[in-house]
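An example makes the point: we let one protein speak, the chain in one-letter code, the fold tokenised, and here it is:
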Amino acid sequence: MAKSRSSQPEQLGAQELSREGSLEHYSRMRRSRRRHAAVRVVLVTLLVAMVALGTTAWAYVSNINAQLNKGVSKTLSSVLSDHEAGDPFYMLLLGIDKDESRAGGSEYGSSDNAYRSDSIMLVRIDPQNKKVTLVSIHRDTQVKLGSNGTQKINAAYSIGGAAYATQVISDFAGVPISHYAEVDMDGLAAVVDQVGGVTVDLPVDVKDPDYTGLDLKAGQNTLDGRTAALLCRARHAYDVYGDGDRYRAANQRIVISAVVQKVLASNPLTLASTVSTLAGYVTTDMDVSSIASLSTQFLGMDVNSDIMSGMEPTTPEYVNDTWYEICDTAAWKKMMDRVNRGLSPYEDGDQDLASDASARIGDNSSNASSTAATTQGGSTGERNASTSSDVEPSYSGDVLVLNGTHTDGLAGKTADRLDATGFDASSGNAGSRAQATTITYAKGHEAEAAGVAQTLGLKVTYKESNDSQYDGYDVVVTLGADYE
């Protein structure tokens, strides 16, 4: 009995049963099989490529993690405290100035433990509220280190390494420390270059010819990596103002804030490159994943208002042939209580003893009307304060600063800043309270008014004055409530 057509593998018409038809039919089937085979080859090739890329990416990230975590001992890990995801936590940031001249000399050498921490900074990080607080601890703070006797706090690192330094600083500040980062200060230069430089506002000239060689003009300065690192080292540039370490620490906090500002405004590729650069200079218990996750949580952060900073209150004292900084324990406890609550370390600006001359966050945007000046290290300084005209600012002349605020001594401090820039400034009281700060100048002295505005960072319109009451002064500044 013949089999029905339906039982055949494929039904063919009469034309297809012909010799030519059948050849065409099987030819189409062979082409179809070849296409399917080609698709399979492409899919397999793509799969292999994806696996290879995944393996490469995994190896790349693993390599960065290995660099970041180098030197993180089990002892250090045991000292660090756990914290709940999303909750505020503290990170200890230690700056170790291990430059080539030190590493090659007999005093320090190549061993990391031979170095004292040049900068000590507690960083409170609050991901939920997108706030960061930087608190510097004076490296010369006097502390008792048990059997090691009375020492400066920065000696803890050279005595017992990262774990011991972390424990000492945690006890001193009265807060648990959850993460640790140790930064070779040369790495700061590399990171600044990686993000394309940072812009800071200097209220006074920063000159340090005998040590760092730094020579920066007051005003907006866009710094390359080398110059930014020098600014973070230049404590002797501030000897005329008082404790140079206090000003240096303030500048370090500002440079770090400026780097954060640039990183948060960058694209993912720049962020990845920055982390890769950091890996060569930073030792931390954190890995690439946790760093990237934390950075993502801070997107949209306003660096100018959401990064707060301060420094441990101390007074210098000469003890047993050694200068120490003695912590004001009551004020320090009050400061850390505020920091723990997510507040600024300072109740008011007058408590910041470095505010008169240390750097501030600058404007990273370009300003076509600014006056550019070349600074050491190939960077560019930009003075961006608003002016009444395009006149070239002058930084000399007689200036009178009048205090129209509730803050005693503010005019005197402001006059000191102007003196440091090159002006001959005097101070006095305005006689009545002023809401807005004003600048007036005698005929022919508009350039001096522009210089005063630039030096003080005042974005006000200055005007020519015919008031004979102030004869003998080229410029008169009346400080208002907006200046406090």
